[in-house]
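Structure tokens please, single chain.
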Amino acid sequence: PRHPRRRRRRRRACVSRDPSRSLLEPSRSLLGTFLRLAGSAEAYESLLRASCRAALARSHPSPARAAHGLYAEMGSLGLALPPAAASQLLLACARTKQAAQAKEVFERVAPEAGHAAEEAEEAAAAAVEPAALRAFALMLSASPGGEPCDASLVRRLLAAHGRALAERLVGGAGDREHGAALVQLCASCGLAEQGCGVLSTLACSGVAAATPGPALLGTLLASCAKSAAGVEHAASLLTRLGEATHPAAARLAASKCGDVWATLLDAACRTGVPAAGFGVYRTLVSRGFEPEAEASLRLLQGLRSGGVSAAAFELRAMLLQRGVPIPEGEEEAEVAVEEG
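Here you go.
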């Protein structure tokens, strides 16, 4: 049995302590923290970040929608969300395929292309994290049914990458998936110049993991063939690829992709820029690919109709050298042009 004196001491120690005070101290601290943070940007941000982490960990849209709801409530209260938290929200919405929410967040954090100063665009590019931009681009390019994306949104996306676009696509081991998504977005909304620029960056980078394939090239050229400016940008792209020293870029301009490039011959005549079509023809022949005789004759007719007599004469000579028979009416017209 324990000593009675030790038992009495223990009872006195228990009686001397104030249980209400020990229990209320943490409660008062938590209550003070709640009253201080309730309705503040810090409280909303902490809850929003927790929801984003849950959405990314579970790959489930419910936490992402909850985080976007908090973001909308912050906007209604006039509370600003830090750029890092906005990037995390954009990443969560894009990864869980919440297109409407992701577009709303992106349009708030990214400047409108062409309406912001260069310094502001670069600041926005630094504010939006690369992982969020990549996930957003992949989500847009994978839209169901291949619906075309809004051109202004794609311009904002390209502007948000800033001057570091090439570094993000071909830096390190390269990122073909990210680059292909941007090319597909440009092709879907008719941004031929931007699409050709991105594909040229990928092909001429020298990074094997970033090199695009013939399928992506065909998608871009099909979009370029719809307008005169698109055909001209595609012709310039072929010239750049033909002059590139990297084998991957040369393969896209080689004879195995000649059928894809030859579609621009009829497109050039149809859109009223036969001179650009002749540039494509001459580059293809120099790379060892001979377009079909019918398409070549249609290009010759387009050059004659467009008054490009010098190019028509050169093309006629090239066709005769290939042994392509020229119809009598067209041959007589060429002779008349030469005599004139």
